[in-house]
Amino acid sequence: MQGDIMSFFTKLGIDPTQASIDWDLQPADTFGMFESWGGKERVKNKNERFYYFYIDNWQPPARLLLMERGIKYARILARIEAPQELIDSCIAAQGKSTTLDASYAIDGTIKLWLQKNVVDSKDDSLVIPIKVEEEEDMRDTGLPRSSDPVPALEQKKLRSTPLAFKEGELEELISHSGLFERRYNPEGSAEGYLVDNGDGLTVTDLTTRLMWQRGGSEINSIRTIQNWIGELNRSKFAGYNDWRLPTFEEALSLAVKKKNSKELYVHPCFSAGQPFVFTSDKRDPGGHWFIDFAQARVFWASGFNPGGFGRVCRTVS
Questions:
Q1: What is the average per-residue pLDDT within 2-20?
Q2: How far apart are the first and last CA of the chain?
């Protein structure tokens, strides 16, 4: 690969002489190309990296993003500050997304805008690294401390063992949980009691006895997320080695009924960098169940295209 100007790659910590934009790559191509090894012959080895722009429409407003992709590997590198009317027009012209992850290919108009204002420009100010945005999100929680007096609380017993279930069973499972979900149980409970553990990394819900990571992973396939959890446990993240993905009920217990300033239905102590997260539950006959905090809904997707974010929890004894 070779770079022309593309100074934005340098801003992202990538050698511009070893990277280039693949203008033909679309979100719908990525599963066959990068996850099944059955796609295009141009993928030579697992260390090769591809870069492409796409539109993420998970939560309003839709965003133009730069993705780094490889075999069993996916990472969103940056948000591009493009005119919102260009992004919205591109989505409207394509209609409903053909993927389950609300990802859209860019059109010719956006391509021309990117070439002029980003790729062929020495000015990289329109390129906003995702990691910078996530770091800015992690402020003081404003929550009571774990050492503070605790009011009388109603305890919730949530399933912690992973389950495989069909789409037709979802509504009943949500109803049985009693938890708030905007589509199937809008009148459900959203009454947790979070406390700040004082480590800058975690909070605990005293009603479910679950400790939660405030941040989370970048977007990745389920295999990469599982490896990431293994590394968290090997390194004893926040002092513990029993971190895991939550079941859908456990993850849904974080949902609140009013959007925060980050446009997510979750307490603002959590990073906005994980708008939808993997759960440990699988869909029968295939796929994985996720919680979408931008919509306060449960949904399923493949787990590979482009994947999902991870946020771990552990049970507090």
A1: 80
A2: 52
